[in-house]
Amino acid sequence: MASKFGPGKKGSKKGGGGFGKIPRRRPVRRTQLISPFGVGAITDFRNDEALMCAGLDRWFTAPPDPTLIIREERLQARLQCDYFVKPPEFGDGEGTSKVKIPYVRFPGWHYCPRCFRMSKAEIFGEQPRCSSCSTKGGGQRRMIPVRVVAICRGGHIEDFPFQEWIKCTCSPAERNLYFKAGRSSASLAGIKISCVHCNRERSLAGSFEEGSLTNVRSCCGAQPWLGRLQGLHSCKEGLQAVQRGGSNVYFPLVSSSIYVPPSYAAESDAIKNVLDQPRVWSALTSSLVDGKIPRATCASFADLFNVDPEALGKAAEARLAGSEAVVVATTEEEFRRQEYEVLLNGAGSHNEDLFVERVDGPEYGWLSEYVRRVGLVRKLRETRVHTGFSRLMPQTDRGDPYVQPLKVDSEINWLPAVEVRGEGIFVELREDAIQRWLNEKAAERRVRPLIEAYNRKRRERELSARPIDVRFIMIHTLAHALIKELTFTCGYGSSSLRERLYCSIEDNKRPMNGFLIYTASGDSEGTLGGLVAQAVPERLDLLVHDALARASWCSNDPVCMESPDGGAFSSNLAACHSCVLLPETSCEEGNRLLDRALLAGTIDDPDVGFFRDLAFQSPT
Fold it and tell me: Is the pTM of this model over 0.90?
């Protein structure tokens, strides 16, 4: 994968970069263009160069190559797009793609590392060079980008207002700014911004404090990745100074899906039960209008049986036509339920993108008291799609007004995506065992303050509260404990394994109590094999026992076990990097909502643990 600076010109031998006869190489991995360096993200390249990935409008001058197109019907229907496109893979050899990903130059402000003179580059301009300093070869010294930018909660980003900060009123032609870093102090107080023309000077001390830019400059709604240094609309959000590489500068919004064959995704269980009733089917098919089932008829039956009318109509028309239609899941829980039912019951073959072998709980001995069913996922395909991004605070809903778009042109009806193929282990816990554990109330009493504090923190940040329960936290922690143990037994690094949780919160009448652990890396480490072998009846019980034994004791105990809160949003109890925390790319929740006491209990209250009746001996 290679990146291209600037918009480029057709037939240009320099690829739009304007850097001379030898183009500068800026490699970017395909998966990184989905997360964490997707559209709108700042990427640091070699030779002190910082660029921002441009919007989808600039990616292709012609329709994407058919070999780059990804089809995932369920996710396409959910995100309302025609297809997905893999980032092109640039190659120097014959027959390889010559398409490069376009970038724009941001931040615009640069300074000379020797004399500290500042210069502002154009968004499609070259990297500035200092006219006062020369290199050993006699050329002008290359300037480096400043490490301070300004963002707002609305997702906009712009250069830090250095002139306004020091109250310099010089015109662009008169100003002569200097960025003097690290002279008197290693803190922000040691960075002095000055203008030689008007003799104004001020340090950056206090510039990172909340509200410090309120009276300096208002957000102009800039969207550099779309080529807009001035927004189309005014923005009411205040600017916040941040470091260019700070973790709050870019939060990619990624939607993922495990491939489910169309024959399994055509009808949900609820809709299938409705259509299987003879009187319903007769009523739907006896009132056809131009060969189609009236919407009013579908709506009345959907109301009667409490199902989605649009999904019912599509499934009914698909049955009528003798074909299969993908049911559009209206919520994330319904979307995952389609995967859950397939993983639970087994599906596919070696010739398909999904192959799951079902193994019932009784084959696992003592583990059958807690596990109802295991799925040996010998083949799977995951599609990860970049749908948008936010800044300053992470957002989870694509429709949120703070989520920024990836494109301007409404006719571009595709999104960037990558495919990951591998294997996995699916585990479903027994509902009756979970209910017996919940009825004792010990676990709920322990976790209730955590959930209340977590949602209170979310509301303080103007995020909606989440309906989390103790069952979700237990399933999540168990998945982490098993991933930790798998790194010792099958050779995968923890960053190469990923979790996918299936827990019903909205619909308790159809419980989901499971999780999927699968290979998450798109490179060679994601296809080592051997993961499924750890889930066969001869090994899984030992794997779970050793995982629980490790989780029952931590090298940081008693501090870890007795910690009242931890992690982002104060969202963890007994969880640290010595026991159950994972690389954040492996965890759906960003290492939040974890408590290993819910697995094996505590010394003072063993009934808190779901596996409270087991005696653990730490693995050697």
Answer: no
